[in-house]
Amino acid sequence: MTLQNNMAKNQRGEAAPSSRMTGRERQMGGFSLLLESSDDEGPEEVTFEDSKADARRSMKRALDTARREKELLKEKRRKRQELFQEQKKRKLLSAEVLEEIDSTKQEQSHVKAEEEAEPEEVEGRKRNWKQNAARNLKGNYTVTTVKQSTLASSQLKAAEDFLHSRMYGPGSRRTTSNEMLSLENKMGKNKSAAVQFVKKNWACQKKAKAEKLKKTWIHMQQIPSS
Amino acid sequence: MGEFKVHRIRFFDYMPSAIRAMAFSTRTERLALARADGALEIFNFSDNYFQEKVLPGHDGRAVEALCWVGPRLFSAGLNGEITEYDLENLRPRYTVDAYGGPIWTIGVNSQGTLLAVGCEDGTVKMFEVLKERIQFQRNLDRQRGRIISLSWHPSGTLIAAGMMDMIRIFDAETGRATHRLVVDRGAGASKSKEVVVWSIAFLSDYTIISSDSAGKVQIWDGLNGTLIRTHLITKWDVLALSVSQDESSLVAGTSEGTVVQFQFLSSTVDRLDKDWVRTRTFKNHSHDVRALAHTETAVVSGGMDTQLVVRPLLDKVEKNTRESAIRKVSFPHRSLVCCAKKAGVLLFQFPDHLELWRLGESDGYGKPGGSLPVKRGPEKLIQLKRKGEDHICCSALSPCGGWLAYSTVTSFRLYRLLNGSISICKVSKLPKDLRPAHQLCFSTDSSKLFASSSNSSVVVVALNEPECKYLGTLKAKYGCRQPVHLLSASENGKWLATANTDCEVHVYNLDKLKLHCTVPVYGSCPTAMAIHPTTSNLVVVHADQQIFEYSLVKKEYTEWSRRLQKQGLHSLWLERDTPITHVTFNPKNPAHIIVQDLFMFCIIDKSLPLPEAKNVLYNQMTLRSLPEPDRVLHSHGFKICKDFQHLLCVSLLEDHSLVVVERPLLDIVSQLPAPVRQKKFAT
Predict the structure, then answer these.
(1) Surface of A (131-190) touching B: CB under 8 A
(2) CA nearest to B237, candidates A170, A162, A172
(3) What is the mean pLDDT of residues B476-501?
(4) For B365, how many CA atoms within 13 A lie in the half-sphere containing its CB?
């Protein structure tokens, strides 16, 4: 009878701690006392409430960690934003200058508003904007429309670029007219020098550069000697 | 003979434009050529390869392909438009937008009823060829990738289209793409780049021949869609293909400047077992060959080096005759330089602007052949940029240097030059009859302007400030439709001679403003003409190098002209391959006629005997070495000077000095775009 009661109590989870403890003891004991067999004992009984509480606890823990992380992130972001604001403030003009400009702007608009005989609000605003815009332009400026490149002309340009890249682009293994003509000079019946030396007005920039180099070299040669 | 002070001019920076496409019409024996700046040129292959017509270019008209449909000429370009040209008025007749993006290729079926264009968006669009226009019919199946080249099968049922990395065969009736032929990419570094099938040809036995950017010419079976043979002909791109009419010969043009010929031959004597075999290689160009045409007897090629080369095939023409010689056309067959004889001012015509230069001066005296010190150098007075997008068609400068006129296909402008041609002002009030002209000419006293108009008529305008008065229109006889390309006014202001591309020469009496006479038609087109100041004889030079002198007063050929025709011109004179572009006279000696072509200028002395066939034609050097009395025995009437080369203009000023405008070919070649790099041994 008591055994059955015990068993029932066990089922109800009253004797659970003891059985658990004994289970733990048994486990710990299991390492040292191999002789103790756990075959006779019944399985551990975990009551429903216990597991519910367990689950609730773990969920709470998870939520807590998530909340903490969020707060940490928020802090980081706030700090960074503040840093940027500060940097921006440093870049902009000082507050006094801004105030001054602001005040003049308001004066202007006030003056304009007084002068105008009270057209609609929209116009007034427009005029202000225009006035401000006009004031910002200094010197002689003219406004012209840019020639609108149509779809056809952009496609034409793209097609020409394709052709050009296939024929003269990378990997096309091309040389210059100068080289080609110089080769002809070298291999022709009357062998002569490369074309940039034969023709007077060829490679003017190169020749000018060479002249300059020559002059600086001579100059440098003269300095140590003098 | 004559001693002249020569102004030797080399500051005309004439730069021709690269040849982009060409099409040959077997029916009319005409070759149409499209250049990179949009200009179109028509060459008459049956008249000594004379450049008959030039249609000026247009900004943004990037012509990629040309096509003849009977007598009509169509072009398609990267601006997405198909243009039909009016060859009688030298302007585009209309344009049709294909709405497919840039158009890369155009082809007509053998019946001449349908025009197919290959577009950037991957569609092949079919247009019906109607009497006065073309009309969009339908699109074939749209492909993923641009259509670079296409070719109709002679039956008109199939179309082969070359794209990127592949060739597609379309059924022309259903529009479905039936076969897909995959083209191999190049080896090595080019494996990562897509291969472009630049050109394709569909033969009547269903063979397709394609050329691509990997340097291959491939032969495919069009019915099964399989590759038969590959020929690797170059390391660079093979840009153009052309098949002969009888499909026995094929030429391929490469980026190296070579043209390779393939012929359909059999290795054994019997007719079976024929195959496409590589036969000849021509290297006539220094830069890429982008356009090819295979005529019955010759291979015509053109490309980035701007020269048109006609290479007769020696198995079709007789060897060592004039027909078998190679022909190179490097300069236009018309004058781009106008010389104001009284003012010493030159006008240079460029496609997009005009330049006015004053000649330099020199005081010294020297020996023949020596150069004189220049006291004051030549100076550029005015550079006039054209208005609008059309290129300049023709221009003229009055002999006094006070008036300047130019015309494009859409507009005509007249300017007054003041203060010794330094300041310029536009004449705004022009008579409305003065429409865009093909040729312009000022009268010698600078009082009238002649502008050629449609139907071979000429509009005469009196030059006054501030308004120019319309004087009248000189009309040719009914039925003349071709444009006038030569205008010549006599010095006394009485006569005006016009020549059109139909070989008709009309002479008008300017006092009565009526037709005076028509010179008997000669089979070859006139290339230059002028009216003698004192004798009023009209000298006309033709494309086949014949010279005629016609008396306007008596309305018959002169005695000298008859003598010349009876004896015939010297064979070396007839073998010259560039036409005479300028005829002028010597005020000091009325028996002289000065003619000029690209490589020489010649003073024809009518008082001396004509050269016979056995005489040496170019005898100036030998005569100089002979003692005085012997010279008279050996000299003949044709005195040719070849000291100045690539002549664009030779003119005689009032102070009896000669103006010679040269354009050395080396100057042009040095400004061409990059050629391919070829490694040569020991360089």
Answers:
(1) 152-153, 155-156, 158-160, 166-168, 171-181, 183, 186-187
(2) A172
(3) 90
(4) 1
Q: Do B677 and A174 touch (CB under 8 A)?
A: yes
Residues 635-654 of B with CB under 8 A from A: none
Taking an 8 Å cut-off on Cβ atoms, the answer to whether A181 and B670 are in contact is yes
Q: How far is CA B405 from the centre of its chain?
A: 23
Q: Please name every residue paired with B108 in a beta bridge, in sequence order, or none if there are none.
A: B115
Strands B337-340 and B327-329: unpaired
Answer yes or no: are the C-beta atoms of B232 and B216 closer than 8 Å.
yes
The reply to whether residue B120 touches residue A195, judged by beta carbons under 8 angstroms, is: no
Interface test with B, best of A154, A161, A177, A200 (most B CBs within 10 A): A177
Q: What is the rounded CA–CA span in Å between residue B17 and residue B35?
A: 6
Cα separation, B92 vs A224, whole angstroms = 73
CA B17 – CA B59 distance, rounded (Å): 13
Span A117-139, mean pLDDT? 51
DSSP state of B335: -
User: Residue B370 is inside which H or E element, if any?
Assistant: none
Look at A16-25, B228-237, B418-427, B447-456 and tell me which has the smallest mean pLDDT: A16-25
Cα B23 to Cα B320: distance, rounded to the nearest angstrom: 28
The total of other beta-carbon atoms located within 10 Å of residue B490's CB is 20
Give the number of other CB atoms < 10 A from CB of residue B341. 19
Q: How far is A190 from chain B (nearest CA, A)?
A: 16
**By the 8 A CB rule, do B26 and B36 touch?**
no
The total of other beta-carbon atoms located within 10 Å of residue B42's CB is: 21
Give me the residue from A155, A199, A202 closest to B101, CB to CB. A155
Q: Please report, as a single letter, which amino acid is at residue B137.
A: Q
Chain centre to alpha carbon of residue B312: 19
Asked whether A196 and A178 are in contact (CB, 8 A), the reply is yes
Asked if A70 is an interface residue toward chain B (Cβ–Cβ < 8 A), one would say: no
SS3 B43: strand
pTM, two decimal places: 0.80
Residue B436 carries which side chain, given as an amino acid letter? P
How far apart (Å, rounded) are the C-alpha atoms in residues B229 and B268?
19
Residue in this structure with the two tokens 């060592």, named with its chain if needed: B320
Q: To the nearest 5 percent, what fractions of chain B are helix, strand and coil?
A: 5, 45, 45
The predicted structure's pLDDT at residue A18: 46
**What is the C-alpha to C-alpha distance for residues A86 and B203, in angstroms, rounded to an integer?**
77
Are B78 and A173 inside 8 Å of each other by CB?
A: no
Contact yes or no for B495/B448 (Cβ under 8 A): no
Chain A residue numbers with beta carbons less than 8 Å from the beta carbon of B666 are: 181, 199
Do residues B418 and B425 make contact, with C-beta atoms less than 8 angstroms apart?
yes
